[in-house]
Amino acid sequence: MKVVPLLKRIWPLMPVLASLAFILALLLIFGADPATAFQALWQGAFGSRDRLLGTLAFWIPLALCAIGLMLTFTAGLWNIGVEGQLILGSIGASWVALNLKGQPAWVLIPLELLAAMAAGALWAALSALLKTRGKVHEIFSGLALTNLAIILTNYLISGPWQPPEGGSFRGTQPFQEAALLPRLFDSRFSPLSLVLMSIALVIVAVLLGNTTWGLKLKALGRNSRSAFLLGVSSEREAVIAMMACGALAGLGGAVRVLSWFDSLRQSISGGIGFLALLVVMLSAYRMFWVPFVAFFFSAVLQGSITLQLRTQLHSSLGGILTGVLVLLTLLFGDYNHLRRLRKESRPDE
Amino acid sequence: MRNKLFLFLGLLVIASMILAACAPPPADDTGAPPPADDTGAPAPSDDAGEPAPGPLTFGVVLVGPQNDRGWSQAHAEGAQYVVDNLEGANLILFELLNPADKPEATLEGVVDDMVAQGATLILTTSDEFEEDTMGVAEKYPDVTFINISGDDALTGEAPDNLGNIMGRMEDMKAIAGCAAALTTQTGQIGYLGPLINFETRRLAASAYLGARYCYENYRGLDPADLQFTVTWIGFWFNIPGVTLDPTEVATNFFDSGIDVIMSGIDTTEGIDVAGQRAAAGDAVWSVPYDFEGACETAPDICLGVPYFNWGPSYLALAQSVADGTWTQSWDWNGANWANLTDNDTTHVGWISGPGLSAEAQASLDLFIAGMASGGINVWTGPINLQDGSAYIAAGQAATDEQIWYLPQLLEGMTGPSE
Lengths: 349, 418
Hints:
The complex is a heterodimer of chains A (349) and B (418). Chain A has 349 residues and is mainly α. Chain A has 14 helices and no strands. In chain A, helix 5 crosses helix 12 (272-282). Chain A is globular. In chain A, 53% of the residues are buried. Chain B has 418 residues and is α/β, with parallel strands linked by helices. Chain B has 13 helices and 15 strands. In chain B, helix 7 packs across helix 8 and helix 9 (246-255) crosses helix 10 (269-279). Chain B is globular and about 60 Å long. Chain B starts with a helix and ends with a strand. In chain B, 52% of the residues are buried. Classes of the chains: A mainly alpha (349), B alpha/beta (418). Chains A and B meet through helix 2, helix 3, helix 4, helix 7 and helix 13 of A and helix 1, helix 2, strand 2 and helix 4 of B.
């Protein structure tokens, strides 16, 4: 059947198309002109240099989290705590930026990125150890640790790191210029972050596709019990996968504070980690699609700002679009599951 | 089995393609007769700049939801007031611009769009936007920007096209404090404060000065006996685990002998707890804040509410920008003393609540009349700061700057200054 490979290829696009149709219906119901609306979405995301740079800038941390999540999903782990790992990463980067005064950029930036990755990995390790040692499911520990990360941020910006003129609860004072990632055209987009994200993408893709470790993760994800019987240490691989994911999310957090913002803010993430979970699901857990879907999400969210401003529809339209996408993905995802089951029963296919 | 699956999928693909491809044309037809959106009436140009039909297109950026029954709603209503009263005024509203609700949005991006749509006046209605408003004002020197509650036009840091507006809530807070002092039986007032900054300090201090004045002059009691306690919860509303829980703070207030709670926060815990206590038979009262209808929660123990009314200042502003007569200013707009609830003229208001006794109301009316005529100025020295140092000399009236930049709470108030 020739149609099979083609369908497989375009499968992840299906929920996108369907949800666009859904949004179309919604626009018609509310009496907005869909042509204007989609034009607004497009222009909001790509309409000008600044818009494109904004879309790129929001894309990087989202993609970093999603790339990291590919590791944990492959290992069969629901790393919901990726949001908290991103926040911890931003705290780690901020710690370096605030405490190493007067250092040149080439000292500060690598240290900030390393601190961010270490902090994210540490947060993920807590989740992983709670699972392997404490039998606490990673979903629960992840949510708890995310809340803890938010509380920690709030404590830092209203306590020890509050700006000298007094805490407004908005954030720390802006970091020294040398601590910030170099940005393109005075925008929030840092080319360096794109390079880092690309490297991460290649490394994770190779790890998952071409290494024994990737195979071990897959075995773990499919059936941890038999993987264990076959000699895969489920604890070690799970912890490493989680920490690697946490490190990438932490890197995303560093990008957030060092190029999107210029300081640690009250809501540094605002749900980017949760969006990344949706990105991976929408990508049907396939590496190839992850960066594209993440970019699509970023474009839709950027575009929905313009959409809201042009049409004065409710501000949550972009959120509805992404929400519908996920619902539909879960529905459509069944096919993927079926295919996998079939594959397992007939390995020669 | 498999064939059926593909048939189904194929149908879905086709169906969605049909939906996507065929839906727009009828939409274009139907979209024209009923005005789909107010901006896009003429043939839409392919670029972002759609011509504005009226004399003025203005943008309003809100930090919270437009229906929060508090700060942001007051601004949304002020913007609507302009639309209702300035012919051809065209409003572009953007709500919930904060990194928690919209991590992908920035003030600059929103302003870019508003300008592209022809906005020549943009109001950023939170001190959260103060810094970013400076940036966009420099980027668009031909657009007038107003940052609410900021002081960049006062300090001279602002470019020429950026002004500030704030309501003179301090006067209403003094009235609120007076109402509290006229009512308290225990001589103890609790003030539920948000976070500590210049604005919140001067508001709490104004409430205290109003309370002290009325306690001394209308009740004939020694103001030194008046206890005025400020507890800062840490933010404008409750964030579990981060701020103090305002419900708990209010409960502790009442347990410690305080019988009137004044609220300086965005939410209603003060009046909620007071209502519950009153229902249980306690003699307690509350003064809520921000929103005209805030007494509705527990009217019987509500002494009144000081509120913001942005409509008149927004209208004047919009008119001057439309006429081309706007010049930069830092406006601290006061009340219409002839009628504190006339929402066509007053910038801040006070509505007495059903919980205020007739006797107290009579004294309060005297106080308000005194403030209106200028006979009473609660910011008249001697006023000492909390650490005991002299701030306003005896007989002197505080200047606007002295009130705006109040560095500490005042002597006689209990609670941290920073």
